[in-house]
Amino acid sequence: MKYSILIMLGLLIGGCAQDDAVTVALDAAEVDVVSETTLADAEAEESDTIFIEYVWHKEGANFSREALMEKVVFWNELIDASESDITTVNLLFPREANDNYDFIWVMVWPSLEAREAGAAYWTANDLDSSWLKEIEGVFSYDAADSYMFSATAQMQPSVANTSDVFENQFNFCTYAEGKGSSDLSDFQLAHAEFLQAYEAEAGLSGYWYTLLEPTFEPNDPAPDFIWLDLWSTTQEKAEGMAYFADSDLSTALDALGSCNRVGFSGLNIRS
Question: Is there a contact between 227 and 173 (Cβ–Cβ < 8 Å)?
Fold first, then answer.
């Protein structure tokens, strides 16, 4: 990932390899890229790994939210007519403006084979030409600004998100000296206990998280791990983050390493 992934997801999901996704800035809150695994399940079942493709997009002279959603309808019609096995599609809108993109298109695939089959169909039917013509003047993207990651959910939300909006936060983290993967595992166990205590006090929530791995060779300096937090609403995120900031777990994270954090609002456009 072009270290901008750290900076860009750190600036978004930061600059990394090439794959398709789009980032948009919309007022929303949490992810519907559902996972049905617990921490133990995620470690035990390779089938629980999915692939998430992020493509950066820039707004054009004729961009508007209404125009964007019109193009979403057109794109979904293309996918409906194809043989693409896309699990979920979201739009991400940065909470802070970024010079590299205005929004991100996110495609979730059940496997690399499914992604390759979808790409092959798109190419064989020359759908790229139709799509580029359709979006001309509204928004644009460069194939070089496409980044794909494998993702394994580490827990499932206590309460399912029933809306199309969500909040997320990418954490691009580097271990402190002497720390490593075993320390991350210990932190995850402490995090599970922390969340249990938090929900016992504040009530069940739609929070969950997943770990991301780039499917490409990142440029240096690359993060040691990428932790993606997800919430159902902005309020849920704010309350959870405030509780975390005053906890021992926050101190434990500081001891584990340092993280660059980048937040987005999200909108589910296909599931």
Answer: yes
For the stretch 46-76, pLDDT in tens is 458 999 999 999 999 999 999 999 999 999 9
Terminal Cα distance for the chain, rounded: 27
Q: What per-residue confidence (pLDDT) applies to 161?
A: 95
Give the CA distances from residue 188 to residues 75, 193, 255, 256, in Å, rounded to whole numbers and listed in that order: 38, 9, 14, 11
**Domain extent at residue 253:** 4-270
- State percent of the chain over pLDDT 90: 77
Instruction: Give bridge partners of residue 146 from the DSSP assignment.
Output: 55
- List the CATH number of the domain containing 175: 3.30.70.100
Q: Of 131 and 20, which is predicted with more confidence?
A: 131
**Please, are residues 52 and 108 in contact by the beta-carbon 8 Å criterion?**
yes
Task: Tell me what pLDDT residue 41 has.
Answer: 40
- CB count, 10 Å around CB of 107? 26
What's the domain count of the chain? 1
Put simply, whether the predicted model's pTM sits higher than 0.90 gets the answer no
